[in-house]
Amino acid sequence: MMPSNPYICGDGGGGNEGGISDGTTQARNPLLCYVCNDYFAEPCLLSCFHTFCARCLRGRLIDGKITCPLCSQPTQLKDNSSVPPSDLLMRQLIELANTENPPCANCDKRDRASMYFCSTCGQALCNHCRENTHRAKMFSTHDIVHMSKCSKEVHRRCAMHGEQYIMFSMSQRNMLCVNCFRDTPAEARLHCVDIDTAYTQCSKKLESSLLAVRDIQTSVHEGVMSYRNLLEELQRNTDTEKMTIHSFCQGMQEAINKTQASMVLEVQRQFEGKERLFKSSLVALSTVLPILQMHLLLCQ
């Protein structure tokens, strides 16, 4: 039986480049597609292990690849396929969910607390549709029961013979009513146990598997948190290195500018000193030149 509470999809979503909420901070039903937010229809599994409806992935194929709407990781399709391979596990879970909590035949609403089943029509009905579609006189003889009672009754009795299940075949992995058990070959009966024993054994196996999955979930969660911390530390270190490089280059630039200004001032100082010297010498020589010319004239 499918649990009624939604699962916690914690930290499994990776990045969020696709603009879709990854659901890491809130409870989310894992049977819902991240794109259409409805129960999976033809669930397809990408190479990043994210699952989406086939209809939600159509039109996203580019150069033989589909980019994950959740983490943006590309998935290479094979054999000219237009969609990734089917997610068989999710398909089974959806089938089981539809058995336990089928949508209303009229409006597709799912609300287990207010769902009914019309045995005459063989359809599930929400409370609203039950009140509106099955109030007419022509439906007065229809057998309508609450979905919880219907599910229990369906799972309790054999679909072929209508008898209650009493045995479980460990080899065939199916439940048997008294008629099914009677029709079972003698050698196959050796692998059958009563339904209560089978339930106890399977419950123990399920509990063991559940604990193992929880351990894996814990390890994955710790790994995700560890890598997130590493990414944050990497970002901090990168920012620190950038600031250090910027400060170093800024200091070097200031030192270069200061040295440049000092050298320019020194060159200017030397120029002015030599300029004064040369001008003084020029004035002195200019003063002597007329005197020399006068003496030359007198000598002539």
UniProtKB/TrEMBL annotation:
GO molecular function: Hsp70 protein binding; transmembrane transporter binding; zinc ion binding
UniProt cross-references to PANTHER family, sorted A to Z: RING FINGER PROTEIN 207
Pfam families per UniProt: zf-B_box, zf-C3HC4
InterPro entries attached to this UniProt entry: RNF207 (IPR039320), Znf_B-box (IPR000315), Znf_C3HC4_RING-type (IPR018957), Znf_RING (IPR001841), Znf_RING/FYVE/PHD (IPR013083), Znf_RING_CS (IPR017907)
Residues covered by the B box-type domain: 99-147
Source taxon at top rank: Eukaryota
GO cellular component: perinuclear region of cytoplasm
Residue ranges of every copy of the RING-type domain listed in the record: 33-72
Keywords linked to the UniProt accession: Metal-binding, Zinc, Zinc-finger
Protein name: RING finger protein 207
Native source species: Homalodisca liturata
